[in-house]
Amino acid sequence: MMRGRQTISDFLRTCVTRGDVPCVVASVANAGDLLYLEAFGKSAVGSNIDATPDTIFRLASMTKPVTSLAAMMLVDEGRITLDAPITHYLADYLQPPVLTKLNPDGTYESRPARRSILIRDLLAHTSGISYSFLNPALARLSERGTPETALPLLHDPGAGWAYGPSTAILGRIVAAVSGETLDDFCKTRIFDSLGMADTGYIVPAEKHPRVVTQHNRNSEGTLLERPNPPKIQSRGRGDDGLFSTASDYVAFLQLFLNGGRCGSTHLISESAIRMMMSNQIGNLVGDVLLATNRSLARPFPLGARKDKFGFGFQIETQPSDPEMRSPGSLSWAGIFNTYFWIDPLKELAAVVMMQLLPGNDEKAVDLFRGFERLVYAG
Question: What is the pTM of this model?
Fold first, then answer.
């Protein structure tokens, strides 16, 4: 039993009551047990529906670690090779050139990349592929009609770290190699094995009442609710689109505390798990990411300019407080202010789920950091 449960609940309830966020569901676990799972606020404010522990959230980029695990399962089985190029698995893939200059008229200059993008580059975000909303030059090209797949690379593969849709390509590779859709592969190999019954790319109609609505915080700080659409599903990409609950996702995180084991069954080898949890970018450093549209996301990630990246995870290298996360802790987030971390040294994993924009919303981050402090204090 985790100490400090009531203090944590009081804190989260206060954040919701004073209007910082419409709702929050939080979960904490160790390697074997669920230690904390509570919900506060309204999952649908306009409909006056209470958030519950089984409220379903959009994970956005918290999909990426799941796709990374799926790919590493195939690496573990010898069906994907980390140092193989994308074209080994996707014959029709055309690697973009490297951007060298954006001209005033919106055209650009480029050069061929010095090498091919490898599978390990997709896993570690060293491919040079980035989202258009995170780079002014790419945003300009996107506005002129350049499709995402044709946007130029920001750097040579392996020469820098750039956050983007590399994991979407990884998801296509998982599907091509396995002969299944990414959704089906993840369901049979990951979700069913871990008891993640509420996780997937499509939410069945009978579960629609459990799906949280999204809010946008405008420039005055007011939260505006966006009702859910009649169909709640996504495109099934590897970089975003999963729906899940806090308890489902913490079960996913427990797999990493257990070295790839679920009970007595190894879903993936311990060596493959260690690889995912280890620095895979060497001396490279990820800079602060600035969205071109600040209503979409505030600067992120937490820990930029000092942390490293593994295969699917940010890795804590210089903890600001020795009483909190240990060196080597893993984390990431979704743009709708869903957050998680895994602390292998202290055998702890936690998930905090909210559902609002902009990403890294100041009040949502304050809630997340306050929750984290109380988890370690307890």
Answer: 0.96
